[in-house]
Amino acid sequence: xTFPKGFLWGGxxxxxxxxxxxxxDGRGLAVPDLKTVGGxxxxxxxxxxxxxxxxxxxxxxxxxxxxxxEDIKLFGEMNFNVFRMSIAWSRIFPQGDELEPNEAGLKFxxxxxxxxxxxxxxxxxxxxxxxxxxxxxxxxxxxxxRRVIDLFVRYAKTVMTRYSSKVKYWITFNEMNFGxxxxxxxxxxGMNPHDTTIYPDGAKENEKVRFQALHNALVASAKVxxxxxxxxxxxxxxxxxxxxxxxxxxxxxxxxxxxxEFDLSFTKFVGDVQVRGVYxxxxxxxxxxxxxxxxxxxxxxxxxxxxxxxxxxxxxYMTVCVTTDDDAAETGGNLMGGKAxxxxxxxxxxxxxxxxxxxxxxIDLQDRYDxxxxxxxxxxxxxxxLKADKTIEDDxxxxxxxxxxxxxxxAIEKGANLIGYTMWGPIDLVSAGTGEMKKRYGFIYVDMNxxxxxxxxxxxxxxxxxxxxxxxxxxxxI
Length: 478
Prior knowledge:
This protein is of the alpha/beta class. The protein has a single domain, classed as TIM Barrel (Alpha-Beta Barrel). Helix content is about 35%, strand content about 15%. It contains 14 helices and twelve strands. It has helices spanning about 15-20, 55-60, 65-75, 90, 105-120, 135-140, 145-160, 205-230, 255-275, 280-290, 300-305, 355-370, 395-415, 460-470; strands at about 10, 80-85, 120-130, 170-175, 235-240, 245-250, 310-315, 320, 375, 420-425, 445, 460. The strands form three sheets. Strands 1-2-3-4-5-7-9-10 form an eight-stranded parallel β-barrel, surrounded by five helices. Strands 6-8 form a two-stranded parallel ribbon. The longest helix has 25 residues, at about 205-230. Mean pLDDT is about 90; it is low at about 180-205. InterPro entries: GH (IPR017853), GH_1_N_CS (IPR033132), Glyco_hydro_1 (IPR001360). Belongs to the glycosyl hydrolase 1 family.
């Protein structure tokens, strides 16, 4: 095995999916706080206000807010040397546009970061992980209003300055390329909070607004990267892309072309801007041809060039096939759709398992960008069974992760500059897509059900000790 000395091993979370404490210590409402529980066949509902008698998963989540010392100690026991987390913007600026931050919110993250360091972990912090304050949504319609750029910069400056001596690794926006989807979740960038499903009605009609909001967020990201380097030149700041690696379903030229267009428009576009500092010709042409090219204000082009990222971080769970054949079998369970690959097996939720696709992705990204790479989300969701003796036999998760770690090792051997791996959900947390607890990713089981009932007790799964040994051996003992 060829994992380099100092390789970053750990896990990844998002505040709205595991933190809880949604109304404590001055925190304001964020978009996820108005999303109910759903399911594959019953999408989550978005409510205009918090309604009595309705369960909102993010309000309590798994209550990391009150269990953080216990949970971080467990992560430390697994030998994590990095932990990816997000800061809830509305915990620092409750409405998003206050002039002064909420000290209680800052103090909470002081304590969490100190606890991580105490247990041997360096924090990797995402500034915006689908957690836009509702105040920003209601007053400004999210990033469609350029004034939000400066509000985000103010928030970022506050936390980056506060934690400048303790946090080296930062990510500006999580899976920012969702804003480029033809049927994107508009609430990712806060453009339309009243869309209630992952694929909202009217998304196509809002394309111009959506791409303007995406542009404004790209400018905000670039400004924060430049600012972060001024605060601490040692900061490593990255983009974060939802990498849906795709293949043409057949060698038919039409399939190959359609797959290329999907890869460039969804998977590569936002990363190209954040790494290279310019809109790629293929996407600029598309936007101009559709008369939806965003308004560039004076200085925007220079800002994008001055604020390129230091590392490319991404999520990888599965691959899809692309074809012009509308009747081809669909993949199941994922947010992107796509056609099924007849050579791959699928998980319980229909996600096709493809470790070789991760090796391919790492080689492709290294060739395209030639900067440090980090896999910051990867894992297997499964309806784990807690046995009477409080054990969980999750060999399927071990098998999944073993194969993906081998794929990373092979990519490193072939030249990929991979510096870290934070698997998704080291502790069971709320699903972003449905709000359920049933779909579990963690090495640590949390006794909690889809309706919020349960003791919240934590139990180690079989994979806990396995991953502990993987890290201790720097990937050799898998």
